[in-house]
Amino acid sequence: MFDTRNDLSAGTRTKIIELLNARLADAIDLGAQTKHAHWNVKGPNFIALHELFDKVAEVVEDQVDTIAERVTALGGTARGTLASVVRSTTLKPYPEDIAEGLQHVDALSAAVAAFGAKVRAAINGAAELGDADTSDLFTGVSRDIDKYLWFLEAHLHAKR
């Protein structure tokens, strides 16, 4: 860990960095899954879903950057290589054999929801470690993820 004048103890920073890097891996994976859906969606709602998936990918990319920068601000190393992400992600693999729009909406909303659950747990984990700033960071991520989960699931509810 790198030296910093941040007043969180080294032990707390180490635990927070581990928590942040775990969610960083998931966020990078989610971003890749979202771009996969964006590139491969087909069907009558193509353009709407193509653009929605791209917007989700943009938001996730912003979250990736925010999470990674918090890691480095605390003196850690952001673990963002593909090899690190493959080793660390907790998200299920995205199905690569689907094409139809609602299949992608279903798969992507499952990934977004899983990420959202992990982020909500991280809010509490950071708070329990005494890092209100990281807890707040995760709260912002959670708010964005919930918003885009709603956007995605609206397509699924329309068919009921």
Structural description of this entry:
By secondary structure, the protein is an all-alpha fold. It has a single domain, classed as Ferritin, core subunit, four-helix bundle (Ferritin, Up-down Bundle). It has helices at 10-40, 46-73, 82-88, 101-128, 132-157. α1 (10-40) packs antiparallel against α2, α1 packs antiparallel against α4 and α4 runs antiparallel to α5 (132-157). The longest helix has 31 residues, at 10-40. It is elongated.
Describe this structure in a few short sentences:
75% of the residues lie in helices and 0% in strands. The protein contains five helices and no strands.
In the residues, how many domains can be counted? 1
Assign the CATH architecture.
Up-down Bundle
Structural class: mainly alpha
Q: For the report, how would you describe the main beta sheet?
A: none
Low-confidence stretches: none
Which whole number gives the mean pLDDT? 96
- Rg (C-alpha, Å): 17 Å
Give the DSSP E fraction (strand runs of 2 or more residues). under 5%
CATH topology group: Ferritin
Q: Separation of termini?
A: 51 Å
DSSP helix fraction: over 70%
- Return the CATH class: Mainly Alpha
What is the N-to-C succession of helices and strands?
HHHHH
The H-level CATH homologous superfamily, spelled out, is Ferritin, core subunit, four-helix bundle
* Bulk shape: elongated
Q: Topology of this structure?
A:
Elements: H1 10-40, H2 46-73, H3 82-88, H4 101-128, H5 132-157
Helix pairs in contact: 1-2, 1-3, 1-4, 2-5, 4-5
